């Protein structure tokens, strides 16, 4: 197995606030890595360090064939940042679709602007992806005309459109009404079955056990447990993992 | 039976209407349109400069806005028209007025544009960056189109203010609408009638602009229909 994403000794500070403390992890090619942990523990920051929406303060990050070192103060080169980001796609908790564009245009945009594909090529790929997430009939709608679940599926199609090597999900269903969660998880599960490499932050434990190859528990900026879903979610050995899981399921 | 006085007033009204309207169409309207168009360009560049990571650039932009917003437009026009000749820069009235109003629109407009850009949720930048866009691409394709929708109403406020503010050009001898009103008043001694007539013509011009604003907002606010004007 080769790693698609690797983090070594990654630290992140916001001013004096030490949010990530010595993170070491790897996300394997074609596998699903799930990150769980209490709110405020640093999960989003960890995920956002993977596509450099946040710059790690210290440590090294490898995504695909790009490796970057971070030391206090040194900013990575712009081209390197762009190349790294083009290997990843991100799905946001609040969808962050482009409200001034139709669904189809949302999915075409980066293909044309970033990858310089022709309009026809981009439209073809976008239509394909919308069909895949079950929204071919909404191509000409605007995001505000869609339900949350539909918007998030567009978000997934948009992230897929640049053919990323890895997809990053930050609590993709947390903003959704309960009855809409299933349709989004189903799409993610299909992608997993196709062998898409994914890193998913989620509070959906049932989904996590089904989809994950590996689970990481983050608490107060540290990885406190790592293992298969069976080890971490079904039979947690670690006390803090157990108390976190019981709090989650009580809700 | 109409009194002689009423008849005289109606007569003056009718005879002064065309000259006033002409002054408006010949000077007020072009002064407004040219200054606003140039002002928007200045405003846009200034807003980008203020947001630039190049400190000197952003400082110059800040300084310009500070000066223009902090001093009366009337005084600025006097400096440009009556003051600059002592530095060897002599301008005819119309270009002097254009420069004054352009600088004014540029300063206030840049604040509107800057605020509109700032009002776009950070998630929009992040989504653009996560797709591999550069800062310029994100700005051009994702942020500015949304900021335009946000800034249309306040920019139209400036536009409508401008058409009224051009009356200040009278003080630097541009024979625009208000100046013309003054001239006719001086000849016929009916200030109430003449200035109401002048006001009506300004009202006519600004009403046309309001109509244009409604049309543009309907056209560019399309995607917000269901969101009830919510932008994100
Ligand atoms: N941009 C930021 N500036 C300052 N502090 C931040 C920033 N982003 C996150 N934090 C802080 O980092 C901690 C971890 O946040 P986050 O990664 O969002 O946690 P999680 O996703 O697990 O809820 C929180 O205490 C949060 O307040
Ligand atoms: Mg989070």
TrEMBL record, chain A:
<protein>
    <submittedName>
        <fullName>Cystine transport system ATP-binding protein</fullName>
        <ecNumber>3.6.3.-</ecNumber>
    </submittedName>
</protein>
<dbReference type="InterPro" id="IPR027417">
    <property type="entry name" value="P-loop_NTPase"/>
</dbReference>
<dbReference type="GO" id="GO:0016787">
    <property type="term" value="F:hydrolase activity"/>
</dbReference>
<dbReference type="Pfam" id="PF00005">
    <property type="entry name" value="ABC_tran"/>
</dbReference>
<dbReference type="GO" id="GO:0005524">
    <property type="term" value="F:ATP binding"/>
</dbReference>
<feature type="domain" description="ABC transporter">
    <location>
        <begin position="5"/>
        <end position="245"/>
    </location>
</feature>
<keyword id="KW-1003">Cell membrane</keyword>
<feature type="coiled-coil region">
    <location>
        <begin position="105"/>
        <end position="132"/>
    </location>
</feature>
<dbReference type="InterPro" id="IPR030679">
    <property type="entry name" value="ABC_ATPase_HisP-typ"/>
</dbReference>
<keyword id="KW-0547">Nucleotide-binding</keyword>
<keyword id="KW-0813">Transport</keyword>
<dbReference type="InterPro" id="IPR003439">
    <property type="entry name" value="ABC_transporter-like_ATP-bd"/>
</dbReference>
<dbReference type="InterPro" id="IPR017871">
    <property type="entry name" value="ABC_transporter-like_CS"/>
</dbReference>
<dbReference type="InterPro" id="IPR050086">
    <property type="entry name" value="MetN_ABC_transporter-like"/>
</dbReference>
<keyword id="KW-0175">Coiled coil</keyword>
<dbReference type="InterPro" id="IPR003593">
    <property type="entry name" value="AAA+_ATPase"/>
</dbReference>
<keyword id="KW-0378">Hydrolase</keyword>
<keyword id="KW-0472">Membrane</keyword>
<keyword id="KW-0067">ATP-binding</keyword>
